[in-house]
């Protein structure tokens, strides 16, 4: 893996002669992590793949709007988070799914997909996560799985640290209660 800082990467991307190389490095550096965050939100591999691609396309188109107020990583995460939440919202509206039906579809996928190899405890945990509201699940995923600080999550979600702490605490309690009843 190439080690490069944001400024060097942006310079590569802004130079027409090295733009393609810069984009390749950007994807190499962040694609797996971005995909992981998206996959935890939408569960289904094909959807996560599409949203990951959309995230990078949107990033490439809007790179001139990146002002360096945050890291490239944070900026990409914000795009990925927004793309994921928008996708879930569109999917619910498009198919007129009540939230419970959509959750059931994703839980079914967890049970029957050959791409998910998890033991029973992990599946119960994932199903408990799916019962959380999307934004609460997002905060939990970013804090628990990605091990991001509340400050980093605050930049990504544009939410106050206090609200994020409360959201994470509520999510943790809901998951704990759900696992106790299983």
Q: What features would you describe in this structure?
A:
It comes from Aquiflexum balticum DSM 16537. Residues 26-93 form the RNA polymerase sigma-70 region domain. InterPro entries: RNA_pol_sigma-70-like, RNA_pol_sigma-70_dom, RNA_pol_sigma70_ECF_CS, RNA_pol_sigma70_r2, RNA_pol_sigma70_r4_t2, RNA_pol_sigma_r2, RNA_pol_sigma_r3/r4-like, WH-like_DNA-bd_sf. The chain has helices spanning 6-14, 19-42, 45-62, 72-94, 99-112, 120-130, 134-145, 150-157, 161-181. With 182 residues, it is mainly α. Helix 1 crosses helix 2. It is globular and about 60 Å long.
- Mean pLDDT across the residues is 86
Oligomerization category of the chains in this entry: single chain
What is the percentage of strand-forming residues?
under 5%
As a whole number of angstroms, the C-alpha radius of gyration is 18 Å
Distance between the termini: 42 Å
CATH architecture: Orthogonal Bundle
**What is the number of E strands?**
0
- In the CATH scheme, what's the topology name? Rna Polymerase Sigma Factor, Chain: A
The succession of helices and strands, N to C, reads HHHHHHHHH
Structural class: mainly alpha
Briefly say what this structure is:
77% of the residues lie in helices and 0% in strands. It has 182 residues and is mostly helical.
């Amino acid at each position: 893996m190439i080690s490069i800082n944001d400024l060097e990467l942006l310079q590569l991307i802004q130079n027409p002669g090295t733009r393609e190389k810069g984009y390749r490095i950007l994807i190499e550096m962040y694609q797996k992590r971005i995909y992981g965050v998206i996959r935890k939100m939408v569960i289904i591999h094909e959807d996560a793949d599409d949203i990951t691609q959309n995230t990078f396309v949107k990033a490439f188109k809007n790179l001139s709007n990146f002002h360096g107020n945050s890291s490239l990583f944070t900026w990409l995460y914000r795009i990925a988070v927004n793309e994921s939440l928008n996708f879930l919202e569109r999917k619910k509206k498009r198919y007129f799914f009540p939230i419970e039906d959509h959750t059931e579809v994703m839980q079914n996928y967890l049970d029957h997909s050959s791409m998910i190899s998890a033991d029973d405890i992990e599946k119960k945990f994932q199903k408990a996560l799916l019962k959380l509201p999307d934004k609460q699940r997002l905060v939990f995923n970013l804090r628990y799985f990605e091990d991001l600080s509340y400050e980093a999550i605050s930049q990504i979600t544009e939410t106050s640290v206090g609200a994020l702490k409360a959201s994470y605490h509520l999510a943790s309690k809901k998951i704990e209660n759900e696992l106790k009843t299983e």
